[in-house]
Every structure is written in C-alpha cells, then in structure tokens.
Amino acid sequence: MIMSTFGFMPELGHKMAAYTELVISMLGFYGSAAIMLNAQFRRVFLPVGKPLGIFYKNRDTYTKAVA
Question: pTM above 0.70?
C-alpha cells in the first residue's frame, strides 16, 4: 500500500480499492454468466450490448459479419 507508506489518506485509498475491486468482480461475474447463459439458451438471456464494429473498414462488412 503505497498511500499508507506516505501517510496520505490511507483509509480512503483502502476503501476506494475495495469498492473498485468489488465492482470489477461483479462485472466479471455478470459478463461470464451472460456469455454462458446466452450460448446455452441460444437467445439473449442476459443482455451485454451490441458489438461496436470499430475494427471494420466499411459498414457493409460489419452488417454481413453481424447477420
């Protein structure tokens, strides 16, 4: 814990780290459950959103890949 080493708000740093780790773990569990359940039931059981399509050069390639 670098923040407590310098003596600068050690308790705030600890709480911030704890809450961000909790949020990240909850998002990870939701994402993994969504992938598994959506594939198992072959429908949108837990929504995760549409792909952004930022790696395609034109819109036609994106629509063909999604369809």
Answer: no
